[in-house]
Please model this.
Amino acid sequence: MSLTAFSSLSDIAAFAARMPAADKAALLAFHNDINEVQRQFTAATASLNDVDNKLKHIRKAIEAAPAPSAELLANVRNLEDKLYELRKLFFGDGAAATLDKTRKEPISDRIFGTTYEIFNSSSMPTQTHREMLRLATLGLKQVLPNVKALAETDLKALEQKLEALGAPYTP
Model:
């Protein structure tokens, strides 16, 4: 079909959205891949939110102590900084975005931009979609060990220090 058969760009877009994929198995595999990356992303961000919540409670417990420990507060601040840097990798730097600074595209934009574009499409993903998925997968593989270390190693070590000092219970 020739592009001259369409009266507007919206007609072309509507037609393209209905173009069936020649290889339905490959389309399903791509959808499964993007769903898996999205699942991993959601689990990692939930872990970051849990760490953030625990750090808030730990900070209050330290500050409520009769003699707050400067060392423990420094440990909390260090973990908060790590958390902030991880969130920037996941969601981007809001300050840089408002200042119109050049910035690396966050993992969330790659995942959810691709998901949004292909969700209701029966067409094969474009090379751009494939590249976005590849970069999102690569980004997650690089960041997930840091999320795990923050939640399972760094935070646990801080909680053990608090417990050893007899600090109040933190949820």
Summary: Helices lie at 9-17, 24-64, 70-91, 94-98, 107-118, 127-165. The mean pLDDT is 86.
